[in-house]
Design a protein that fits this description.
334 residues; alpha/beta; D-Maltodextrin-Binding Protein, domain 2; five-stranded mixed beta sheet; globular; signal
Length: 334
């Protein structure tokens, strides 16, 4: 009997150990819709199904704060923008993207009711107060690249960090900024609420090509090279769940996607938010793969105004990997 009880105890201990969830800290750079596949995966319970215990931290001020957290070691994986991996390589830090969420920019430039900026006359942007999510963010890059392409500089405008979502829309509505560069849902809210008008739209492929000269990949999952090397099984589980979320999103309506989201992710009224998701659907990756051709566009943009990137010899092959996406089981989420 004693041997039986010892064996039983050992079996229970083994089962308990086997069932223990794998902890992982994931930080997200604001709840703009470029990052939508992450909360969809959360809402569908896909991370839990992979045996993960995910702790989430949201930086509403933008992706640059998420990057800081990753480099500082206070988070394991970041939901942020691909161009950060290029910046980090120019600073001799290895940060690797391993799942693509948004294959295109999703950014718009909107003008408030009193704005005098005319995109057909780029010089009319001089003196404008322009709202961006945060300094060093991709919305910041958007403005700087636009200015550079038209013979202007950041000294010709005032760049003001206003976050994203409803806070960003409020800044435009209250006249704290004249122009706003932001993502959905803010982009949709601006026109739905009659706050302003979208003047430049990079949500479509054609719009992105007009602004950047090509497709501009944005939201990805990235981690330090050391974390990926030390935790390949955890990274694979996160990748499995996220790619299944992308597959699920591709086969479901905007309404169904919103119904699956955690409540804290939804801002504004329900119908307008559904419309925002519908407007943003075209930017999402279908399979999580990172294109070696498309990532040349963020590099070109950064080189145009970022001195460290321009001076560095950037090896794009070291900024991303499709290794984990290639190993995702070919079974769509239910």
């Amino acid at each position: 009997m004693r041997k039986f009880m010892l064996a039983l105890a050992a079996t229970v201990a083994f089962v308990g150990t086997a069932a223990a969830a794998d902890p992982v800290r994931i930080s997200v750079g604001s709840y703009n819709l470029n990052n939508l596949p992450f909360p969809v995966a959360k809402g569908l319970g896909l991370y839990e199904k992979e045996g993960l215990d995910v702790t989430v931290e949201n930086f509403a001020s933008g992706g640059s704060k998420t990057l800081q957290a990753l480099v500082a070691g206070s988070t394991d994986i970041a939901v942020g923008f691909y161009d950060h991996t290029i910046q980090m390589q120019s600073q001799n830090k290895a940060v690797i993207a391993f799942v693509q969420l948004a294959r295109n920019s999703g950014l718009v430039l909107a003008g408030g009711k009193s704005s005098t900026f005319d995109p057909m006359k780029p010089e009319t942007i001089k003196g404008a107060k322009i709202g961006i999510t945060s300094p060093g963010s991709s919305s910041d890059f958007f403005v700087r690249y636009y200015l550079q392409r038209h013979g202007l500089s950041a000294d010709d405008v005032s760049l003001i960090g206003v976050g994203s979502g409803s806070a960003a829309v409020a800044a435009l509505e209250q006249g704290k900024v004249d122009l706003l560069v932001n993502y959905d849902p803010a982009a949709t809210f601006i026109e739905a609420k009659g706050v302003g008008k979208i003047l430049i739209d990079a949500r479509s492929d054609d719009g992105a090509k007009a602004i950047y000269g090509g497709i501009y990949p944005t939201s990805v999952l990235y981690a330090t090279q050391s974390y990926i090397e030390d935790n390949p099984e955890t990274v694979q589980k996160v990748t499995n769940a996220t790619v299944k979320a992308l597959e699920w999103m591709n086969s479901h309506s905007a309404e169904e996607i919103v119904e699956m989201l955690p409540k804290e992710f939804i801002s504004g009224d329900h119908d307008t938010y559904v419309k925002a998701v519908e407007n943003a659907k075209a930017i999402f990756s279908k399979d999580g793969r990172i294109s070696d051709e498309d990532i040349k566009t963020p590099l070109a943009v950064l080189k145009s105004f970022n001195e460290k990137v321009a001076a560095a010899k950037i090896d794009l092959s070291k900024t991303y990997t499709n290794e984990f996406v290639d190993k995702v089981p070919a079974v769509a989420a239910n």
